[in-house]
Write the structure tokens for this entry.
Amino acid sequence: MKKLSKFVDTRIGFFTLLVVLFWLKTLFAYFTDFKLGAEGIFQNIILLFNPLATTALIYSLAFYFKRSRFFYPVLMGLDVANTLLLYLNVIYYREFTDFMTIATMTGYSKVNQGLSGSSLALTNFHDVFYWLDIVIILILMAFKLIKFDPRALGTRLAFAFTSVALVLFGVNLSFAEMSRPQLLTRTFDRAYIVKYLGIDTFTGYDLVKSQHINEMRQSATKSELEKVKKFTDKHYAKANPKMFGIAKDRNVIIIHLESFQQFLIDKKINGQEVTPFLNSLYHGQDTYAFDNFFHQVGQGKTSDAENMLETSTFGLPQGSLFATLGSDNTFQGAPAILNQRAGYTSAVFHGNVASFWNRNNVYKNLGYQYFFDASYYDTSGDKATGYGLKDKLLFKDSVKYLQTLQQPFYAKYITVTNHFPYTLDDEDKDPNFQTTNTGDTNVDNYFITAHYLDQSLREFFDYLHKTGLDKKSMVMIYGDHYGISNSENPALASVLGKNADEWNDFDNTQLQRVPLMFVIPGTGKGQIYHTYGGEIDVLPTLLHLLGISSKRYIQFGTDLFSSQHSQVVAFRNRDFITPRYTSISGTIYDNKTGKPAKLTAKQKERLKKANELVNTELSLSDSLNEKNLLRFYHPKGFKPVNPADYNYSNGLKRAEQIEKKKGNKSTSIFSENNDQSTVDDYSTDAPEQNHSSTDSNRIKITNPDANNK
Ligand code: GP9
Ligand code: MN
């Protein structure tokens, strides 16, 4: 004991004491207040050690202050500041289930107004532990029970401490990268950065990023907006009169098929269809489908797909637009347009935590009125896989919410079960479906989860039919991006009747096709279109089907049904594809032969133009989003979205209150069904529905009020 107190009386000892105490406090926060969802030994080891490196690094700065009347106050000051940062995050997390960004701290963010007066109510008895050590140390110092050590560390030794801490940080970073590749470039979820690298690193990283964004935004001018507007005006494709308004006033149900590629459609394995239900839809007389439709996502994957579909602007060249800019950007997207032009109610159903891809913030800026995230569902036990509630349960358990929404509604279902690594419990597997035997587990399992997703859609459509909702709705189904990556595609080759040895970049690009179908029951004129297009084109197409002109908005895509639609499909890496050619890193392939094309001078000229178009649209979209230019744009009749108007807790209660207020004018499914629930009209063979939820939730509840919903 004596030895220990002697050690604390040295500068190194005092430094060590503070580092260890802060480390413990951080772990305390990790395991009591935050829900970081560390899984497995490796992630937990990273979690245990990640506060150490940064704390040692920051606190080692005090060693450069030689005089003890500077050293001690500086070190204590750093400790207090660091504790304050941790503590503010604890409080903030209790309210928002998220971490504080620089924008929220400085009050810049419009979404989360920072901590309000109510933050006192968010304190908890155990918060004492965050501050107790500091109080005790100060008292011990005041009573000279901790003595000041006058002997300063030599600059070299100080430097050695900083260097060791830096090396530790490097180790932490590489472990994090091993466990979660592209953690910092893609920034899936703030909770992930904290889980792997700690709060200090997260805050530092956010500071650098937000500075960069602020600089870009400050440099923005109106003339840049005009340039963008000129481009989109020039490329606007006017609606096809045969299609314009054919789904007018219908509900819109969007089904986001996770990682779902077009090659699954009509695919048979061992004589069996992988997705029999989707195939029947695809060929159905009420379905307007596309077989040359491509995903165009970058690193933001699902969130990029969502961004394109909601706004018809591209994702960013690096990272996810939702995650990096989505908290503060001005959007003029589908939920707001549909609400303001045609009175649509908007909602998202998704069985993952709300913070993933920063959805909790972005959806408010898009004008989404409801967001039913994991906290609205029972995700305990085997009801969820890695990314959230299993699809069959998502569709079924959403009915109680869906039926309370005023019609017409714009409702988006984001599925998750068909997500890498495509694992599914045995009880969910169809014993009659035999998958491939390629030797690549991802490929083999991919067909199993796709088959499961297909079954979940059949159940949902049965419900739509039973309740008559199908006739009142248009269902738009699309695949967000590839599920099998380029490196695994050769393993897929034999399944697709190709030779793995001859597999090349051209083949990879062809596999970026994903489904797009508009199912509009009762219209009877459905067909499979061979038009080339991509996710960027969906919003103007959808608006025109609903009889809403998209002309006044800044959108980079064009109506797929229009004769003026541009068939040059840009990929995020600036490759592109047209009905005849595929351009990959500057090489032009002939789509017919799959070999580099022999081009006439005229064809070369045309492709050069296509290339320029791709470069221009991507650059203009980037400048629009990075500089937040839409804040300068006021399309006719468009009221800017105010994120403060939205709050995603108590969704069911809010919808029911609206029902009540409207009385017999309420247009919800529930009201139209004479105030009878339609939950019993839903039937699923999901085995989990009868399982009691004994074990702890796999997907952590994101909202403290969750149980009241
Ligand atoms: C998570 C889900 C997956 O909520 O949407 O996103 P992804 O990994 O496909 O981008
Ligand atoms: Mn996805």
Observations:
- Residues 2-217 form one domain.
- The first strand starts at residue 251 and ends at 257.
- The mean pLDDT is 93.
